[in-house]
Amino acid sequence: MTRVATSSSFLSQRMWRRAWYLVLVLLCASSVRAQAPLTAVGVPYTQDFDSLANSGTANATLPAGWALTESGGGARDNELYAADDGVGNSGDVYSYGASGSSDRAFGSLRSGSLVPIFGASFTNATGTTLTGLSIAYTGEQWRLGTIARTDRLDFQYSLSATSLTGAGWIDVDALDFVAPITVTVGAKDGNAAASRVTLSATIDNLAIPDGATIWIRWTDLDAAGADDGLAVDDFSLTPLGEPTGPPSRVTLTQSGGSTVVAEGSQTDSYTLVLTSQPTADVVVAITPDAQVSADVSSVTFTSVNWNVAQTVVVQAVDDTAVEPSPHQGSVAHVVTSSDAVYNGTPVPTLSISITDNDIALTPISQIQGTGAASPLAGQSVTTRGIVTAHKSNGFFVQSQAADQDADPSSSEGLFVFTGTALPAAAAVSHLVTVTGIVTEFRSATASPGSYTLTQLTNATVSAIATAQPRPAAVTLVAADLAVVSGLEKYEGMLVRVPSLVVVAPTGGTLSEANASSTSNGAFFGVLPGTPRPFREPGVEAWAPVPAPPAQLPRFDTNPERLRVDSDGVGGARIDVATGAVVSNLVGPLENAFTSYTLLPLPSPSPAPLVSGGMTVSGVPVPSAGEVTVGAQNFERFFDTVNDAGVSDVALTPAALATRLQKASLTVRDVLQSPDILAVVEFENLAVLQQLAERLNTDTVAAGNADPLYTAYLQEGNDIGGIDVGFLVKGLTTVTVGVEQI
């Protein structure tokens, strides 16, 4: 018996251990799959996920009803979740939030070796059949894995599944969360506005019996490249159905059987009518939510009109928020009356389907990026900004303060190329939305490989608001111009230069035939205290070099040199000489002709001010008995005849007279009428003789003795027919002969 007893005892111990193991397994399974109850129609279940762990990589505690599953065999395939702030890139289910913070979100990051699914199950405990589910949540992006493509959490529900991997799942695309950020790989602040998207939808035409189970889940799309870290926060599920209280004595009838509206356009209507004659007035208060509005705040029924249906017109609030299409709005009703039968009688809440008219905006800072070129080049984007200035072929926009990021290395300005007349919507100070193709433009005359101008082309423009304050200009400092890429972070933005020292004068175009020039308003300068730059030896910093690169010196392109196009956006042309100081320069910054260029605004306050500058200085007046010899290049001094066989320019008679006058002034007032003057680039002896005659005439007219200048010319073989020669003052000099050596 002892042996039998021992044997029996041993068997009992084994059976108890198995039984306890089975109980433990069942308890664990129950803790994972216990459903969250839906207790009443119209009463939402909410979950903020702040009970999730905020540290560790192997956490099991979940809110009641919530579950996760993992497959694929990766290192984190353990049916547990990790806490993360977006820095991690391992495939896993995550509790996302700032490091150590109790504000959490529930999400996942898919990898090649781990496929995560998370969701929840709910029990219909309302005591009635549910006819719909109204679901809302906020999607949060905590990490970007790969640029220039989108990742997604795909929402599904099932009325027949028994687990997250069961069958019968139905997609609800309106509740899919698409990652809003597609630039700059790495961790994101999922609580920032740019990282969050609010989603909502109502699932109608359901028949969920009391006591039945509803499953929801999110599956992680396998996006191209490394996946994003996406999460769900502020979740709510509201069961819909006929209330179990007293029957309504107010009949609500939707036109066409449903109520559908669109932001900015389509309206819809419904009617209310009583089912029996009241003994006192019945007032039905109409209370729309924030998504919709109604044309009346209440309707009143009397004992006379109780059976006449009254119409309520509803429309969507035309906001600027980007929302799913469709998303949901609602109108609630409250009945008051001295008739006890009607007072407080329930009226169904009207569910309204809304089509959104807003387009997802890409901030200007994301279009510009932090590098030399846009990470979105070639893509169609829609952005928003305040119009700051007009060019002849486009306009500049800059982000309003609310749309700016906190990254000083990304520009908040952008040029919009129109090519033709500017649209009326793009008036200066208008807040506009612009849709176009991101393009990197380099002018035909710019050096290959040099920086480009990020711009939008094929643009459509819509005005949102007028008379917006102009964004503040950024004051440039020496450090901004220290390297070739230093000003890229301000491209398209308003910048300010309090003082600029001109190092290259205003340029222009020349009409040789008319001996006239036209200013183009463009000049170069440096900040005060910066030495005047010169072209150093070497290959330009952006020029292509052989691979492997030879030991070539590199020229930094003199980034300290700033180009100013004074009439580029409608301002007055500023004509300055080297050495001048120009103050109060404010305007947008662009990249043009291989140089960063400031375009002064047309009406700044204070206006630009010019002082100083290089002027003509004459040679000293010769002393008695001193012999003077000078030289002057008169640069392509032609006559009025178009000679055959040479590429000369025939001046107009007026142009020739002007050139002779200026040349006479130069020789007399600047060179002090030297005894011998070597001249360069005269077309022929005849025109040089005309200058000699003009010098003699002008000198006498000025009250001085006739210098008796005589012209000598040596014919050369220049393709333009220009030659060298001499003017010899006969008053002081005897010419023995002129001979070419």
Question: So how many helices?
Answer: 4
The assigned structural class equals mainly beta
Mean pLDDT over the residues: 90
- Taken together, the total number of domains comes to 5
Strand fraction equals: 35-45%
- Radius of gyration from the alpha-carbon trace, in angstroms: 41 Å
Number of strands: 44
CATH architecture of the largest domain: Sandwich
- Give the terminus-to-terminus CA distance: 143 Å
Sheet of most strands: 8 strands, mixed
CATH level 1 class label of the largest domain: Mainly Beta
Judging from the principal axes of the Cα atoms, what is the shape?
elongated
CATH topology of the largest domain: Jelly Rolls
Uncertain spans: 1-32
Helix content: under 10%
In short:
The protein is mostly beta strands and 741 residues long.
List the keywords.
single chain, 741 residues, mainly beta, Jelly Rolls, Immunoglobulin-like, OB fold (Dihydrolipoamide Acetyltransferase, E2P), 5 domains, 4 helices
Report on this structure:
The structure is a single chain. The longest helix has 32 residues, at 2-33. It is elongated, with a radius of gyration of 41 Å. The N and C termini lie far apart (143 Å). A hairpin with a 4-residue loop joins strand 32 (508-511) and strand 33. 10% of the residues lie in helices and 37% in strands. It folds into five domains: 33-241, Jelly Rolls (Sandwich), CATH 2.60.120; 250-355, CalX-beta domain (Immunoglobulin-like, Sandwich); 364-471, Nucleic acid-binding proteins (OB fold (Dihydrolipoamide Acetyltransferase, E2P), Beta Barrel); 487-532 and 559-611, OB fold (Dihydrolipoamide Acetyltransferase, E2P) (Beta Barrel); 629-729, Translation Initiation Factor IF3, CATH 3.30.110. The chain has 741 residues and is mainly β. Strands 2, 4, 5, 6, 8, 12, 13 and 15 form an eight-stranded mixed beta sheet that branches. Strands 1, 3, 7, 9, 10, 11 and 14 form a seven-stranded mixed beta sheet that branches. The chain contains four helices and 44 strands. Residues 1-32 have low confidence and may be disordered.
